[in-house]
Amino acid sequence: MTMQMLCAFTIAFLFVTAFGKWYIPWLEKEKARQLIKENGPTWHASKSGTPTMGGVMFILGTMLVCLTVGFPGMLQGRYEHIFVLLFALVFGAIGLLDDWQKIRKKQNLGLSTKAKFLLQLVAALLFLLLMTKMGFLHTVLYLPLSGKTVKVPPVLFYIFAIFVIVGTVNAVNITDGVDGLATGTSIPVFLFFVLVTFAWGREYLQLGLFASAMVGGLMGFLVYNFNPAKVFMGDTGSLFLGGAIAAMAFAYDIPLILIPLCVMFIIETLSDIIQVGYFKLTHGKRVFRMAPFHHHLEMGGWTGRKWKEKEIFVLYTGVALLCMVFSFLIVFERFQ
Known about the structure:
Elements: H1 2-29, H2 55-68, H3 71-75, H4 80-105, H5 113-133, E1 140-143, E2 148-151, H6 154-175, H7 181-200, H8 205-225, H9 234-251, H10 258-261, H11 263-281, H12 293-298, H13 309-331
Antiparallel strand pairs: 1-2
Helix pairs in contact: 1-2, 1-8, 2-4, 2-8, 2-9, 4-5, 4-8, 4-9, 5-6, 6-9, 6-11, 7-8, 7-9, 7-13
């Protein structure tokens, strides 16, 4: 199992780093460029014109691993990783459509918020129904800290699950606002699933291969996405990541682990919600200098010190690693 997981990581990493050398110049040639929001930090204006839709790089790397390293398992009737991949691909397709609209219109506005929400809602519901029909999903919630499980009425479970999936997808999307930030924050999340696979055994190997491929693919992508970024993942990549993280949590049957595991994504989302809500209630006042939270740090919120992008990357990735360790410790003994 160790060799298979290592192979998955290596293939994804090498593919993404090699593919990027051709793909990024191609994006530049095709003028697939990111347009920066006018209401964002003024110094981000220099990023305008950076190629986007870079998420295709680690998406293809993960697909390659699933269809090669994961093929022996498929011959034995194990398709869990394929279900997760297909689910994430649906969200990636929504992101791709959004990115394409932005490029075509030459503005930072793609699909409408309502259209994206409805598409995500339908995708989440179809995934849950498919997973239930295939016997991979049960309306039971595992409580990590207590080690107990709670039976949940199907309707309430599906409402909860849809909320978690759509929330996770958009949380990752919101975090993608600083060079390498969503990439660096996501790597520990997938590394968590790699560790869980080793702890729980070969039954979860197929899912572990997907997680290993994501770690390798994202590390390969980070070569190009780290500040100063040569390419952005775009909504294509961030929605795929969010979909993959949510799908993995449900595939491992531990969706509540996303609360401690994805603390930084949650902070980003809450900062956005708090900012908008407080702005409306107070008719123009703000809690943060700018939301989401990483922009607040960039603009010197609270302390007056303006954080650099690399510092924000280190902060978010470091906290994500700590969350990974804590999350692993509270689920380690579930199947021991």
